[in-house]
Amino acid sequence: MEWSFQDGLPIWQQLYEILRREIAIGGYAPGSKMPTVRELAAQAGVNPNTMQRALSQLESDNLVITNRTAGRTVTEDREILENVRRELARHQVQTYLQQMALLGYTAGEAAQLLIQEKEETP
To answer: CA of 117: how far to CAs of 110, 113, 121, in Å?
Structure first.
């Protein structure tokens, strides 16, 4: 997992997005134990309080469940996970369509280019 940060957005929100994406794509399997706050903070090179804030948001979104004795685990609710995956995919599609519109392509033309690219790529 790559921990790269950009200016203009709070670090905790960027951590939240990185972890959210990792959970959605199975980087952390459903039901698996999450690393501790300190372990994640050390991996990312951030303050543990910053990481805690990101994890709290994941918990609010029901992606992570906290158990006092077992630590944090990833939700096993497949519907929640699929909804996050779909939301992330929609965002990518919207970004693609916006960029293609800047190049003068309609949504239909942009979709056709995707199909053509897929057919040409082995």
So the answer is: 11, 6, 6
**Tens digit of pLDDT at every position of the chain (122 positions):** 788 899 899 999 999 999 999 999 999 999 999 999 999 999 999 999 999 999 999 999 999 999 888 899 999 999 999 999 999 999 999 999 999 999 999 999 999 999 999 888 87
* DSSP code per residue over 85-112: HHHHHHHHHHHHHHHHHHTT--HHHHHH
At 83, which helix (H) or strand (E)? helix 78-102
Predicted TM-score (pTM) of the model is 0.83
Contact criterion met (CB below 8 Å) for 18 and 57: no
Give the number of C-alpha atoms closer than 13 A to the C-alpha of residue 98, restricted to the C-beta side: 6
- Pick from 27, 18, 22, 31: nearest CA to 77: 31
